[in-house]
Amino acid sequence: MKTVVNKGLIAAALLLATAGVTFAQGTALEIGGFVRETLPGLSTSAAYLELKNHAREGRSLTGVEIAQSAQALASLHTTVERDGISRMRPVEALAIPAGQSVKMAPGGLHVMLEGVKLRAGDNLSLRLLFANGEIREVVLPVRGLQADSEHHHHHQHG
Known about the structure:
alpha+beta, eleven-stranded mixed beta sheet, 11 strands, 16% helix, Lxx211020-like, signal
């Protein structure tokens, strides 16, 4: 009986240790991030993903869908500055090289969300579409604008 209980505890510990990391064909892709809340009166927002590719092969993110709504739209974008004016441009695909990470951030790469009303404390499910046919769903927390500003202000890189 002790052996069965111990094996069960070990299995549970292994499941918890790998939560948030998905293994496919001996490879791993770790996905995290957050979504900004929508401003009052607006229905647009942005999601910022961090994609860590622990695989031996590169991946390509080719699309994003909002899982909870058929009417809302999600698309990959980047922000470019020209002549002091920031403009958003669509991105057809986002390469995630083998063994590397791609981190989206305000003022750069992001997932544009249209037709959404999001408040801090909500969660948003996104469906990520990859060039190899893989589809991954991720649930991201919605952060208030104040929390997002404080996070970037106090965050230091080593």
